[in-house]
Design brief:
Oligomer: single chain
Shape: rod-shaped
Number of strands: 0
Structural class: mainly alpha
Largest sheet: none
Distance between the termini: 36 Å
Amino acid sequence: MAKRFRFRLEAVLEQRRRERDARRRSVGEAAAVATEALARITQLRDELEHARESSRDAQVMGAVDLTWLSRQELHRNWLRQSIDSGTEELATRRSELKSRQSELAEASSRLKVVEKLRERRWEQHRRELNREEQTATDEAGVLLYLRRRAAACGE
Protein backbone atom coordinates (compact mmCIF):
# COMPACT_ATOMS: atom_id res chain seq x y z
CA MET A 1 0.00 0.00 0.00
CA ALA A 2 1.27 3.46 -0.90
CA LYS A 3 2.50 5.74 1.85
CA ARG A 4 0.39 8.80 2.52
CA PHE A 5 2.15 12.13 1.99
CA ARG A 6 3.05 13.82 5.24
CA PHE A 7 4.87 17.13 5.35
CA ARG A 8 6.75 17.39 8.63
CA LEU A 9 6.75 21.17 8.60
CA GLU A 10 2.98 21.53 8.18
CA ALA A 11 2.70 23.32 11.53
CA VAL A 12 5.39 25.79 10.45
CA LEU A 13 3.57 26.31 7.15
CA GLU A 14 0.30 27.06 8.95
CA GLN A 15 2.04 29.43 11.36
CA ARG A 16 3.61 31.31 8.47
CA ARG A 17 0.21 31.56 6.76
CA ARG A 18 -1.34 32.96 9.93
CA GLU A 19 1.53 35.44 10.22
CA ARG A 20 1.10 36.56 6.61
CA ASP A 21 -2.65 36.92 7.06
CA ALA A 22 -2.12 39.01 10.20
CA ARG A 23 0.30 41.22 8.27
CA ARG A 24 -2.29 41.62 5.51
CA ARG A 25 -4.88 42.76 8.02
CA SER A 26 -2.33 45.14 9.52
CA VAL A 27 -1.61 46.66 6.11
CA GLY A 28 -5.34 47.02 5.47
CA GLU A 29 -5.83 48.81 8.78
CA ALA A 30 -2.88 51.14 8.14
CA ALA A 31 -4.17 51.90 4.64
CA ALA A 32 -7.60 52.73 6.05
CA VAL A 33 -6.07 55.10 8.63
CA ALA A 34 -3.99 56.82 5.93
CA THR A 35 -7.07 57.15 3.72
CA GLU A 36 -9.02 58.70 6.60
CA ALA A 37 -6.21 61.20 7.22
CA LEU A 38 -6.19 62.14 3.54
CA ALA A 39 -9.98 62.53 3.55
CA ARG A 40 -9.75 64.81 6.58
CA ILE A 41 -7.15 67.00 4.85
CA THR A 42 -9.31 67.19 1.74
CA GLN A 43 -12.32 68.17 3.86
CA LEU A 44 -10.30 70.88 5.61
CA ARG A 45 -9.02 72.25 2.28
CA ASP A 46 -12.56 72.37 0.91
CA GLU A 47 -13.69 74.17 4.07
CA LEU A 48 -10.80 76.65 3.73
CA GLU A 49 -11.73 77.37 0.12
CA HIS A 50 -15.36 77.87 1.12
CA ALA A 51 -14.27 80.30 3.89
CA ARG A 52 -12.17 82.26 1.39
CA GLU A 53 -15.09 82.50 -1.02
CA SER A 54 -17.39 83.62 1.81
CA SER A 55 -15.01 86.42 2.75
CA ARG A 56 -14.62 87.48 -0.88
CA ASP A 57 -18.36 87.48 -1.44
CA ALA A 58 -18.95 89.56 1.70
CA GLN A 59 -16.32 92.09 0.62
CA VAL A 60 -17.79 92.35 -2.89
CA MET A 61 -21.27 93.00 -1.47
CA GLY A 62 -19.85 95.90 0.50
CA ALA A 63 -21.54 95.12 3.81
CA VAL A 64 -18.42 94.14 5.73
CA ASP A 65 -18.56 93.58 9.46
CA LEU A 66 -15.08 93.79 10.94
CA THR A 67 -15.93 91.41 13.77
CA TRP A 68 -17.18 88.85 11.28
CA LEU A 69 -14.08 89.35 9.10
CA SER A 70 -11.84 88.91 12.14
CA ARG A 71 -13.60 85.67 13.07
CA GLN A 72 -13.32 84.46 9.50
CA GLU A 73 -9.59 85.16 9.51
CA LEU A 74 -9.17 83.28 12.79
CA HIS A 75 -11.17 80.38 11.37
CA ARG A 76 -9.05 80.31 8.18
CA ASN A 77 -5.86 80.33 10.29
CA TRP A 78 -7.18 77.43 12.36
CA LEU A 79 -8.00 75.57 9.13
CA ARG A 80 -4.48 76.16 7.78
CA GLN A 81 -2.94 74.89 11.02
CA SER A 82 -5.23 71.86 10.96
CA ILE A 83 -4.23 71.15 7.36
CA ASP A 84 -0.55 71.40 8.30
CA SER A 85 -0.92 69.05 11.26
CA GLY A 86 -3.07 66.72 9.14
CA THR A 87 -0.37 66.68 6.48
CA GLU A 88 2.21 65.71 9.09
CA GLU A 89 -0.10 63.00 10.38
CA LEU A 90 -0.63 61.74 6.83
CA ALA A 91 3.13 61.51 6.33
CA THR A 92 3.40 59.51 9.55
CA ARG A 93 0.55 57.23 8.51
CA ARG A 94 2.09 56.66 5.08
CA SER A 95 5.41 55.83 6.70
CA GLU A 96 3.65 53.34 8.98
CA LEU A 97 1.85 51.86 5.97
CA LYS A 98 5.13 51.47 4.11
CA SER A 99 6.69 49.76 7.12
CA ARG A 100 3.78 47.35 7.42
CA GLN A 101 3.92 46.63 3.71
CA SER A 102 7.57 45.66 4.01
CA GLU A 103 6.68 43.41 6.96
CA LEU A 104 4.00 41.80 4.79
CA ALA A 105 6.49 41.27 1.97
CA GLU A 106 8.91 39.61 4.38
CA ALA A 107 6.18 37.39 5.85
CA SER A 108 5.06 36.43 2.35
CA SER A 109 8.58 35.49 1.31
CA ARG A 110 9.05 33.42 4.48
CA LEU A 111 5.81 31.60 3.66
CA LYS A 112 6.87 31.08 0.07
CA VAL A 113 10.08 29.37 1.20
CA VAL A 114 8.15 26.78 3.20
CA GLU A 115 5.56 26.36 0.42
CA LYS A 116 8.31 25.67 -2.12
CA LEU A 117 9.86 23.15 0.26
CA ARG A 118 6.48 21.46 0.66
CA GLU A 119 6.05 21.40 -3.12
CA ARG A 120 9.49 19.81 -3.59
CA ARG A 121 8.75 17.20 -0.94
CA TRP A 122 5.40 16.46 -2.61
CA GLU A 123 7.11 15.98 -5.97
CA GLN A 124 9.70 13.71 -4.35
CA HIS A 125 6.90 11.68 -2.72
CA ARG A 126 5.05 11.44 -6.03
CA ARG A 127 8.21 10.23 -7.81
CA GLU A 128 8.72 7.56 -5.12
CA LEU A 129 5.14 6.39 -5.52
CA ASN A 130 5.55 6.24 -9.30
CA ARG A 131 8.79 4.30 -8.89
CA GLU A 132 7.12 1.82 -6.48
CA GLU A 133 4.17 1.46 -8.84
CA GLN A 134 6.48 0.86 -11.77
CA THR A 135 8.43 -1.75 -9.76
CA ALA A 136 5.18 -3.53 -8.84
CA THR A 137 4.03 -3.45 -12.46
CA ASP A 138 7.40 -4.80 -13.65
CA GLU A 139 7.29 -7.62 -11.07
CA ALA A 140 3.75 -8.51 -12.11
CA GLY A 141 4.85 -8.59 -15.74
CA VAL A 142 7.82 -10.82 -14.96
CA LEU A 143 5.64 -13.20 -12.93
CA LEU A 144 3.07 -13.36 -15.72
CA TYR A 145 5.82 -14.07 -18.25
CA LEU A 146 7.30 -16.80 -16.06
CA ARG A 147 3.88 -18.44 -15.58
CA ARG A 148 3.18 -18.40 -19.29
CA ARG A 149 6.60 -19.78 -20.01
CA ALA A 150 6.21 -22.50 -17.39
CA ALA A 151 2.76 -23.32 -18.76
CA ALA A 152 4.14 -23.48 -22.30
CA CYS A 153 7.05 -25.72 -21.19
CA GLY A 154 4.71 -27.94 -19.20
CA GLU A 155 2.47 -28.73 -22.13
